[in-house]
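Quarterly update from the structural biology core.
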Amino acid sequence: MFIVGFIVLVLGKKYYVVRPPQGSIVINCFRALGMMIRHGNMNAPKPSYIAEHHLNTTAPWNDHFVEEVKRALVAIRVFGFFPIFWVIYGVGFPKFGSFSSLEMEAFVSQFSNNFVSQAAQMDGHGIPNDLMQNFDPIAIIVLIPILDRFIYPAMQKMHIQFLPISRITLGFVVAGLGVAYAAIVQHLIYAAPPCYSAPGCLVDGVEVDQNNVHIAIQTPAYVFIGVAEIFLNISGLEYAYTKAPLSMKSFVQSMYLLTNAFGSAIGLALVPVTTDPQILWMYTGLAIASVITAGIFWVLFHHLNAEEDRMNALEADQEESVATRNASVAEEKRHEGV
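Predicted structure, tokenized:
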């Protein structure tokens, strides 16, 4: 698969917009943010503001750079709630790699594999417990074309706007439904013989790991998580790219990916409650947290839906300006060559 991706990347190079390297802007971004915090004003880093208020500092950027930083902050604020989703996503899907500490191994084996371990407590009827996690990518592959080709166009025809903030909010709700369903499945496992809430019990001297619950019951949990990933992860990547200024797309994208690290850190803190029977309450708590997050997220950011067209227009204007400037430079070089 990686070889196919590499071939596509190379063959499609002429269709990509390739921008020349301009150096790192991360340091300047954080310097500008520090000045905003220190002076309690979003315009404080602007050279014009510095000159007007006679501040004892200098800025190696112009006013336009500060406006770009302010625009990038809009997207970064939206990402602040994404760690909750990554915690939920970590419940069901294993992460592979080498680990240097027993704590990290415990996190991966006890927390990230919880759905796989849950399936191991159910009657598999010949189905491997780690096969169930394939329903997540299957749900994504099947549902993305259906949404893009049928659902979203139908909503547009009915004049129903399903903008990124709305999709992300719905994603948190669906993610909550996913772990809520997992809690229900865990309850059914604990209510079923022969081991009830203590899987791995001894029956007639033989250790029994599975209770009498069919493994297929777990399928909707993976489908819910897959749907949540479509609304949250894809919309988050879209927001990181479309709302970031041209000069900060990589920086804003890195801030979005950083939320995954925070989600993993929260997940590590939850390792002690990923054992039987406490794990039932962990699922319940995550479901409640995700739904509450959806409500808070909507209250704080729903107004950004109304600004969607304006923010996208800024992106289009900036790209047009860059294209015009590059065309002018090319024209000048051509005349110089003549």
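The first strand starts at residue 122 and ends at 123.
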